[in-house]
Amino acid sequence: MTRRASERETNEDTSQCQKYNVLFNTYEPKIAGIKLDIEPHAIQGWDEDIAKRESLNARYLALLGNARAWISDKTAEGEMPLWVDCPVKYFREEHHELLRGLSELVDGITVMSYYNRVDNVLKNAKFVIARTEKPIEIGLEISPNAPETDTLAQLPYHEFIKLRETVHEEYAETSNFIGISLHDYMALKQFSEHYENSISP
Fold it and tell me: pLDDT at position 148, please?
């Protein structure tokens, strides 16, 4: 995908959200903000090739900057907040320039803390919250279709609820912790239905 095409599609998506709010301005709830899931690290070579990584990161930040400018210019009733999904690796010291750059452009970050073990989720939640002052959501993967190492799909439902409560309790007094984000709705629906069926008489 070219940079120009990416910018056009990003603008179109944000524009549709804004048009929805205008068209249905008497309805609640409205679309409260924009969250972009753009993953330059998923492109082959990002980890190994420094020059390629720097190029991809520059394009990524340009897209975020373009989205920020577009939202600011086109939003009629107050600027919509702009959030992004990021992997834990963006918070490592070797990627501090990328984290600094995106932090200047967005209002909040959903960290893709995608692991299949509770201890890894908790360890990385603590790590990322300490690395930025930006509002943070801890993203959890619960889809059975995700790679086995990345998902809590096999976690018993009561343990998942305990994990969610532990995260909220641990960071309730932390100013930049906003909450938990689950990927995705259909997986959550299946997750909870499976639990309900397992305890039905």
Answer: 94
